[in-house]
Every structure is written in structure tokens, then in C-alpha cells.
Amino acid sequence: MSYRLLYPLRTYLVVSGRLGEEVNVMAADWVMLMSVEPFVVGVGVSPKRYTHGLIKRYGEFVVSVPSTDMVRDVWIVGSESGPGKLAKTSFTLIRAQKVGTPIIREALANLECRVIDSLNYGDHTWFVGEVVAYSYREEAFPGMVPSLEAGFLAHLTRNKFATFEKRVITP
Prior knowledge:
By secondary structure, the chain is mainly beta. 11% of the residues lie in helices and 41% in strands. The protein is globular, with a radius of gyration of 15 Å.
């Protein structure tokens, strides 16, 4: 478990599948910006996860940014597996702008991604997606700058999360 030395990490939700068909939401800490132009993000997903198969099948995914108000639902989708867990959450899945995978209405932001590459590294596949559309709550990102008052989540370990202080440090 020495990988925990890299924590805390921001927590995200990865949505996969198709609205009205098969949909899954997975909590993920292993998400990162890979390029600004074009806007590209990557996400690590174990081949054992239901999400992995859906991303492979449809070639797209959504990265949703949860808030502290969503921590119960984040915990459910991060600790349970399979499609049945969504019934236990209060997520509202709605149609995305450019992909068939739904977005989460309650999220602070949603990034709609089309897979442009994937590669296996050890026990995870790194899916690389070009962001083809996005939406966000203006109060969480005024002027496209994250507001610490929005309640972004960071994962510490197991069932422990942290949020960010309303304090900015400049060198």
C-alpha cells in the first residue's frame, strides 16, 4: 500500500455507458490533466471494474467533479461494484452535450471525453480521453478559477475524505 504515500488525491467520478441502457459511476482518484491544447485527460481503471468494460465498449467516458455534498454517494460508488449501486445514490443522470454517456447534474463540473488512446500499466488501464464538451457550475468556478468554497473532495484513505481550506498561499 505504499502508493498511499501520494495521497491525498482529488476525488472524481467516472461515468460510463449509455443513458437508458447500461450506466455506471465509479469513484476515481487516478485522474489527471494530460494536455491543455487539445484538452486531454487520463484516468486509470482496473480491468476488474465494470467501468472498464463500458469504456472499452463505447469509447467514451465522463469525468464528474463531486462536492462535499455528494460524499455519501461518492462513497457508495467507490466501495460497491456493478450497476445496481446507482439505485442507492441520489445522482441525477442527464443527457450530455456531445457524448452518449450521461453527466451528473449535481456535480460541480462534467468533462465529456472520447477515448483517443489506452494502454495497460500493471494492474490498471490508462484511458486517455479528449474533452469534447464540458459544463460547470459558475459559482464553483467563477471566471474559470476554482472556488475553495465549492467543497472539492480529496481522498485520504478508505472511508476518509478531506476538503480544501479557504486559504490560498502564494510564494
